[in-house]
Amino acid sequence: xxxxxxVDDDQVFRELLTTILDLEGYESVVLSEPETVVPTARQVxxxxxxxxxxxxxGDTLPILRELKADEALKTVPVVMTxxxxxxxxxxxxxxxxxxxxxxxxxxxxxxxxxxxx
Length: 117
Known about the structure:
Layout: E1 3-7, H1 11-23, E2 27-31, H2 37-44, E3 48-52, E4 54-55, E5 58-59, H3 61-69, E6 78-82, H4 87-93, E7 97-100, H5 105-115
Parallel strand pairs: 1-2, 1-3, 3-6, 6-7
Antiparallel strand pairs: 4-5
């Protein structure tokens, strides 16, 4: 089964995403603490990381940069999401795709399908 890491601190949004991903046959690993993202990604070797730009502990752009600088993780596609248009910042930091919230499930699934071989 293909694993996707979901990084978001909003419980309702996490549940929505995991439901959508489960229905499409993906396994979800849900994270809400920024310090757990890189170690967990190393452990589970996800096919993709779906990460909100801003969580209660702060901005996740440093985590994105750390992921993209890590030899073992730099090829893992990262889709960043936010309620504000921060696409330029995210793409400049190494994101493979940026999706503005709120988005339709079909939009997210299409982005995932484009990035996972």
